[in-house]
């Protein structure tokens, strides 16, 4: 097996902590039990040898995580090696000082395993909740990102901006264990976001949830080109890929088991967005084809898809979202085990040959 640190790619999982009814039983898990399951899944991922665990941020009753840092702090106490990241922190409506200090604290608790993945979010419920206007959607993100990166670089910061009160020679504490707390930007398909990530020299995580992944290659190329032109070392320009996944012993088993939950997930997500469409089995089978970005299948098929994407992007990180649609914890745990023991070793070995 290729050594994890020298393989050239990190493999992990993430959750948005959605709370949906199980379509087979009709039962909906409580937020308390959902949070406990997430901590258990993170512990299992760590013990199985995966590299990264991420938690998203939403401010809605149908999600259980409004504070990724708090959950990651709890996970830090039951894990030993796995890196801990937000996926994502909604930076437009978060105070960057509070965000940095929270994750610096997670870094202390985890002995240097914390990261921040900042994004603008798929929903906008945090804007009125925290007193921001969606009219400032992009400008808020830019300003908050600039401040966050200053906080990561300096113990004492002076700041003046448009959206946040100014401060001078403020001590930013605590400082993390890591020399610099890693910051990534989440990108859903916007060239402007890829340019921004490259300009600042931070990691870029691409959310590729379906379709042909080749459509994202221009974003990867633009990110690297912008980063080099801005003076950043190519080695520091890291790309991550995130996507929905479900793994079973055979491809047919994976499709049969996952379809009810995946259709259920998109039905309630679409309902949240004011749409009432339901995915057919034929549509689902098409979406899981070999040339698509939906990772549903046997360990061999999942490994092949990751490697195909690596040929496109040369990325350094892959994160799978396994627990959507009201799935029982048993299904999620089986996918974690297969990802760690049958998919990851193959991917690491193949990529390490060229690393």
TrEMBL record:
Oxidoreductase is among the record's keywords: yes
Keywords annotated in UniProt: Monooxygenase, Oxidoreductase
Entry keyword Oxidoreductase: yes
GO CC field: cytosol
Domain Luciferase-like: 10-315
Annotated GO MF terms: monooxygenase activity; oxidoreductase activity, acting on paired donors, with incorporation or reduction of molecular oxygen
Source organism, top-level taxon: Bacteria
Gene3D superfamilies assigned: Luciferase-like domain
Pfam families linked: Bac_luciferase
Protein name: Luciferase
Organism: Mesobacillus campisalis
């Amino acid at each position: 097996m290729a050594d994890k640190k020298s393989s050239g790619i990190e493999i992990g999982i993430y959750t948005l902590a959605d709370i949906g009814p199980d379509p087979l039983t009709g039962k909906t898990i409580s937020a308390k039990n959902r949070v406990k399951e997430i901590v258990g899944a993170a512990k299992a991922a760590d013990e199985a040898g995966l590299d990264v665990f991420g938690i998203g941020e939403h401010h809605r009753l149908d999600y259980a995580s409004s504070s990724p840092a708090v959950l990651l702090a709890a996970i830090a106490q039951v894990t030993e090696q796995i890196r801990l990241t937000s996926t994502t922190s909604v930076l437009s409506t978060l105070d960057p000082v509070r965000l940095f200090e929270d994750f610096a604290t997670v870094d202390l608790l985890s002995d240097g395993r914390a990261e921040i993945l900042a994004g603008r979010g798929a929903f906008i419920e945090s804007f009125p909740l925290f007193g921001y206007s969606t009219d400032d959607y992009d400008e808020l993100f830019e300003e908050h990102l600039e401040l966050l990166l200053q906080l990561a670089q300096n113990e004492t910061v002076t700041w003046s901006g448009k959206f946040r009160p100014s401060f001078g020679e403020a001590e930013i504490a605590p400082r993390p264990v890591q020399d610099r707390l890693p910051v990534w930007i989440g990108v859903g398909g916007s060239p402007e976001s890829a340019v921004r990530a490259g300009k600042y020299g931070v990691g870029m995580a691409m959310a590729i949830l379906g379709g042909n992944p080749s459509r994202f290659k221009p974003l990867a190329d633009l990110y690297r080109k912008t980063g080099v032109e801005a003076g950043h070392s190519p080695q520091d320009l890291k790309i991550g890929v995130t996507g929905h996944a479900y793994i079973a012993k055979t491809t047919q088993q994976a499709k049969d088991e996952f379809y009810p939950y995946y259709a259920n997930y998109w039905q309630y997500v679409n309902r949240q967005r004011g749409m009432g469409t339901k995915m057919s089995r034929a549509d689902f089978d098409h979406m899981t084809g070999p040339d698509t970005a939906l990772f549903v299948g046997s360990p061999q098929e999942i490994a092949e898809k990751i490697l195909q994407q690596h040929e496109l992007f040369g990325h350094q990180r892959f994160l799978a979202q396994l627990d959507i649609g009201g799935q029982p914890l048993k299904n999620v745990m089986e996918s974690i085990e297969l990802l760690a023991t049958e998919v990851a070793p193959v991917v690491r070995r193949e990529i390490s040959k060229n690393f």
